[in-house]
Specification:
Blueprint (H helix, E strand, L loop, with lengths): L1 H8 L2 H17 L1 H9 L3 E5 L2 E4 H19 L10 H24 L6 H10 L4 E2 L2 E2 L1 H10 L4 H22 L6 H11 L2 E9 L10 H10 L9 E10 L11 H13 L4 E9 L7 H16 L4 H8 L11 E5 L6 H7 L11 E2 L4 E10 L6 H34 L4 H7 L4 E2 L15 H7 L2 H5 L7 E4 L2 E11 L6 H33 L12 E6 L8 H7 L12 E6 L5 E10 L7 H30 L2 E3 L1
Antiparallel strand pairs: 1-2, 1-17, 3-4, 5-14, 5-16, 6-11, 6-13, 7-8, 7-10, 9-10, 12-13, 15-16
């Protein structure tokens, strides 16, 4: 294959293709090249605001993780459609961008001070009821965020939430709408049903019937297309015995581990925040007055409760709990780490306003011994080497498989065993044949038709394979003798269902014309005061019942017919409709009002989003 490519690249065909490409570039213009290059890092543009490919990649990965978490550990990740994931993630980012632009236009805002309090009080970041910086870092790393990225994402989420709540919470309904909805919801119906069972025993089929169906539906009776694969497998666990960790590397890893430990400081503060009615100079003067009162012996916590503009901490005497480096505003953090326990800082200006900061306590980090961390450090160091080794060998396998005409050569070069699958079809099979990527590769034109080895396929983070087709079993028409019994069973059900429906429609027409066949009088099943959630009634029957028009006159029922999944045909007789007589209680009225207002608010929000989309300039790359 490679030699053919080299030979053809020197011939007149290759030169002709190159000439066409040059001409195409000349015709499309240099501007198109630069436009393409400028957009190569972007996934979309919304009203001039860019959504980068990196942001899209992160959103896709986040969506994949959420789906895998919901679907469970045993779910095959290869079944996820990457295109659908990408489209869904991109649509979500575009929607989010539109909503953020809408929130900005509507002057929604979420202060950095409130954002700090939200982070410090989030349960997932607490250890023993107190904020823990290490826990915070661990959680956001698992989510794929840095600290700055997480804060920006959180702020955007709060803005979108404010906008959503503002629109959804503005929905309202009138008393007339509530009453009308309640009448429909609490309506009951008196009805009866007559079931004409599909009688398979009454159906007579000849051999000619079976043969005729077999001939007319020939495509239904084909053996499945199947393949048998050969494959070689790389497993990351097999490399652990090949790597060693030196004492020096272990010592260095231990030093790095304990160097990351940081003390936690418990801070309290009094915040005076500049506002429209309080200038920055006035805020500074006010914090200086409070400082004087502290110097005169007044209690810090009492003054925080009285004067602090931080609603999240004022009630607890300004206490912010324990936190490590990197959590607070840089100016705030610098002042905090310059204090001794019990000491109060001079006035400090941060982006939120003027602070007085008190150090309430210090928690020194507990430094673990090397012995207590040895197993973990060895595992981590080996894992890094194994990861590197796995990547290197995967690349070697990729190259060797591409150049080889079978799997014997790659297996020999890398000391792998060539294994074989059972035959399986496009729906998959057992073992690696259950993996969607393996199935796609097995039935691809390159592997199935050209007989090539596949590229390296990652089954999971620890396992990779290369496959090739050993045997291709093409579809063949099954003999009549093999499928006659299944045809007889299927055709019998169809004929029985058709006969039941024909009889039912004939009887239904008679009933609608005012006739009441005597032999059917005693077989009606009567149900009174049925609700929309009536138990013991087929859902299809119940749905049809509440679609039927109300009888125009007493004693003159209306009729309808429904075919069930099992082939039976049910005639429904609606005898009467009853409206609720009692007036709604205050509790019921409030319940219906909340439900309808919520539904109306959601519809308003959806309409608002559609309007944003309709008016926006959205370009996908």
């Amino acid at each position: 294959m490679l030699q053919n490519i080299r030979d053809n690249s020197q011939g007149w065909i290759a030169k002709t293709i190159i000439g066409l490409i040059v001409a195409l570039l000349a015709l499309t213009g240099v501007d198109a090249i630069f436009t393409s290059t400028s957009n190569s890092q972007n996934a979309a543009q919304v009203n001039g605001e860019e959504i980068t490919s990196a942001e899209l990649g992160q959103a896709v990965e986040m969506q994949r993780r959420q789906l895998l978490q919901q679907l469970g550990r045993d779910f095959d990740a290869s079944l996820l459609d990457e295109k659908l994931l990408r489209d869904s993630a991109l649509n979500g980012l575009i929607e989010r961008t539109l909503l953020l632009q809408g929130a900005e236009k509507a002057d929604f805002a979420f202060s950095k001070q409130a954002l700090d309090q939200l982070v410090l009080q989030t349960p997932e970041f607490l250890v023993d009821g107190k904020f823990d910086a290490d826990r915070f870092d661990q959680v956001i790393r698992q989510l794929g965020y840095s600290r700055l990225q997480f804060r920006r994402m959180l702020e955007e989420e709060m803005l979108v939430g404010q906008l959503r709540a503002g629109l959804a919470g503005s929905g309202f309904v009138t008393d007339e709408e509530i009453a009308a909805f309640a009448r429909l919801e609490k309506q009951t119906r008196d009805f009866a049903t007559l079931t004409l069972a599909a009688d398979s025993a009454a159906v007579q089929l000849s051999d000619d019937d079976i043969k005729a169906y077999y001939e007319s539906q020939a495509s239904e009776f084909m053996s499945p297309e199947q393949v048998v694969l050969e494959y070689v497998e790389l497993n990351k666990d097999d490399f652990f015995d090949e790597v060693e960790v030196s004492d020096e590397a272990l010592q260095n890893a231990y030093r790095d581990e304990i160097a990351n430990l940081a003390e936690q400081r418990q801070a309290a503060h009094i915040l005076i925040e500049p506002s429209d009615s309080l200038s920055d100079e006035q805020a500074k003067a006010k914090i200086q007055e409070i400082e004087k009162r502290l110097q005169q012996g007044e209690d810090f916590a009492a003054l925080a409760k009285e004067f602090s503009n931080d609603p999240g901490s004022a009630g607890s005497g300004g206490d912010l709990g324990y936190a490590g480096p990197g959590v607070y505003d840089p100016a705030f953090e610098e002042a905090l780490y310059a204090l001794e326990k019990g000491q109060v800082s001079a006035p400090v200006r941060s982006e939120f306003g003027w602070h007085l900061i008190k150090l309430l306590g210090v928690q020194a980090p507990e430094v673990p011994t090397l012995d207590s961390l040895k197993d973990k450090l060895l595992r981590d160091l080996k894992a890094r080497q194994v990861e590197q080794r796995f990547v290197e060998v995967s690349k070697q396998l990729e190259d060797s498989a591409f150049e080889a005409s079978d799997l014997a050569q790659p297996a020999q070069e890398l000391g792998l065993e060539v294994k074989t699958t059972e035959a399986f079809g496009r729906e998959g099979g057992e073992g690696i044949a259950a993996n969607r990527q393996v199935i796609q590769a097995a039935f691809s034109a390159e592997v199935l038709e050209d007989g090539s080895n596949s590229s390296v396929i990652e089954l999971d983070p620890n396992t990779a394979v290369v496959v090739r087709v050993k045997e291709h079993k093409k579809p063949q028409r099954l003999a009549l003798e093999q499928v006659a019994e299944s045809i007889r069973e299927q055709l019998t059900k169809v004929r029985a269902s058709e006969a039941a429906k024909a009889s039912g429609e004939e009887l239904l027409n008679a009933l609608r014309s005012g006739k009441t066949p005597d032999d059917q009088a005693s077989t009606w099943k009567v149900t009174e005061a049925a609700t929309r959630n009536q138990e013991g009634v087929e859902p299809a029957v119940l749905q049809e019942l509440f679609r039927m028009p109300k009888p125009s006159d007493a004693g003159k029922p209306t009729f309808a017919g429904v075919s069930l999944q099992n082939g039976d045909y049910v005639i429904v007789r609606l005898d009467g409709v009853s409206e609720p007589e009692k007036a709604l209680s205050d509790e019921e009225k409030a319940m219906y009002s909340r439900f309808l207002a919520s539904r109306s608010g959601k519809q308003d929000f959806s309409a608002f989003l559609k309007q944003l989309e309709a008016e926006a300039d959205i370009e996908r790359f």
